[in-house]
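Example S7 (C-alpha cells).
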C-alpha cells in the first residue's frame, strides 16, 4: 500500500473508466511489493490487539500537504483476521480491509490463501471499489525462494458498474514463462471495453477496441510506480501494543545474534497473550478492538458469495461480519 502517489491519482481522473484503470494499476503495484519484501523479511506472528500505525507524504510537490495515514490491527486470533484502514483526508479517500490468511504446505512450497476484502471509497465521486486478493505461492523455500501469484482477484464498482476479474497464471511445469496476468474490463452492460495482459511484476498493456478499425493500446510498467517511504512515530512515544515497541527487545536480540534471548523474550510476549486470553474466556468477555468495530455482512452479499462456484472468499464471508474502522462513516 506504500504506492500512495499512485493511490491519490485515482481521484484526479475525470471519468470513471480512467479511474478504474488507475485502481487496477495501484492494486497490482501493491501486490508487486509482496515479491520485493518476501526475500528480506520474515515478520513476527502478531498478537491479538497488536497495532501498526504509519503515514506517508504523498504528491510530487515537496510542499504537498497530502498525508496518507495507515492503521493495521490484529482483531481476531481464531480465525486470524487483520483489519486495515488507510485515509487521505485531503483527497476524501478511504480504504478499509479485512484480511485472513491460510498457509498450505506442500513439499518445498507454501500456498498462502488470502481471504477477505478491501473497500476503496472516493467520497467526492460517490464510488466504492470492492477488491479481493489472489493466492500467493512461495516456491523453493528451502533453497532459493521466489514468489508468484495464482488464481484471481476481482475489482468492481457498484456505482459505475465497472468490474474486472484479474487472472494470474502460475508457471507451468515445463514452461519458462512466469508472472503472466490477464483481465477483461467490463462496463455496466457487461460489455468488454478493454483487455489487459502482461506481467504483474513488469509491463502491462491495456487494449481498447471499439471496432476492428479503432484500437488503442496503453502501456504501463509497474516497476515505474514509485513507493514512498513510510513515517513511523519514535518508539518512545508509541503505545504498548504498537508493533515496533512490542517487539523491540526481540528484534534487538536478533540483531545481536543472541537467539536464546530472542526466544525467551518472544515466549514472554506469547505467554502474556495466552494468559490474557484465558482470563477473557473465564469472564466470558470478547476482545474489543481499539480502532475497529464489528458489523454484520450484508445477507445478500453473503448468500451470493456462498452460492458462487468461482468465489474463493466463502470462508471469509462465512464469518458473517467484518471489522470497519471507527472513522469509516465520518
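Recovered sequence:
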Amino acid at each position: 500500500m506504500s504506492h500512495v502517489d499512485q493511490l491519490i491519482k485515482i481521484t484526479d481522473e475525470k471519468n470513471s473508466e480512467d479511474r478504474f484503470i488507475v485502481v487496477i494499476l495501484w492494486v497490482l503495484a501493491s501486490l508487486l511489493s509482496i515479491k520485493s519484501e518476501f526475500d528480506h523479511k520474515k515478520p513476527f506472528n502478531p498478537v491479538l490487539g497488536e497495532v501498526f500505525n504509519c503515514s506517508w507524504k504523498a504528491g510530487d510537490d515537496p510542499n504537498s500537504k497530502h498525508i496518507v495515514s495507515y492503521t493495521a490491527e490484529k482483531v481476531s486470533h481464531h480465525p486470524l483476521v487483520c483489519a486495515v484502514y488507510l485515509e487521505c483526508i485531503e483527497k476524501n479517500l478511504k480504504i478499509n480491509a479485512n484480511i485472513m490468511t491460510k498457509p498450505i504446505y506442500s513439499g518445498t512450497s507454501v500456498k498462502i490463501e488470502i481471504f477477505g476484502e478491501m473497500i476503496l471509497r472516493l467520497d467526492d465521486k460517490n464510488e466504492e471499489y470492492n477488491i479481493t486478493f489472489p493466492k500467493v505461492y512461495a516456491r523453493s523455500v528451502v533453497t532459493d525462494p521466489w514468489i508468484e501469484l495464482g488464481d484471481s482477484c476481482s475489482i468492481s464498482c457498484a456505482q459505475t458498474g465497472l468490474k474486472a476479474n484479474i487472472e494470474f497464471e502460475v508457471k507451468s511445469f515445463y514452461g519458462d514463462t512466469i508472472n503472466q496476468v490477464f483481465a477483461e474490463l467490463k462496463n455496466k452492460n457487461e460489455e468488454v471495453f478493454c483487455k489487459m495482459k502482461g506481467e504483474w511484476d513488469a509491463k502491462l498493456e491495456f487494449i481498447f477496441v471499439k471496432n476492428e478499425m479503432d484500437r488503442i493500446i496503453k502501456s504501463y510498467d509497474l516497476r515505474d510506480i514509485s513507493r514512498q517511504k513510510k513515517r513511523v512515530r519514535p518508539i518512545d512515544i508509541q503505545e504498548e501494543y504498537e508493533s515496533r515497541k512490542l517487539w523491540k527487545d526481540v528484534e534487538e536480540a536478533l540483531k545481536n545474534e543472541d537467539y536464546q534471548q530472542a526466544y525467551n523474550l518472544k515466549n514472554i510476549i506469547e505467554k502474556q497473550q495466552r494468559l490474557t486470553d484465558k482470563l477473557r474466556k473465564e469472564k466470558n468477555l470478547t476482545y474489543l478492538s481499539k480502532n475497529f468495530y464489528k458489523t454484520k455482512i450484508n445477507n445478500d452479499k453473503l448468500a451470493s458469495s456462498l452460492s458462487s462456484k468461482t468465489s474463493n472468499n466463502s470462508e471469509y464471508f462465512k464469518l458473517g461480519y467484518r471489522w470497519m474502522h471507527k472513522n469509516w462513516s465520518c
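Notes on this example. The first strand starts at residue 51 and ends at 58.
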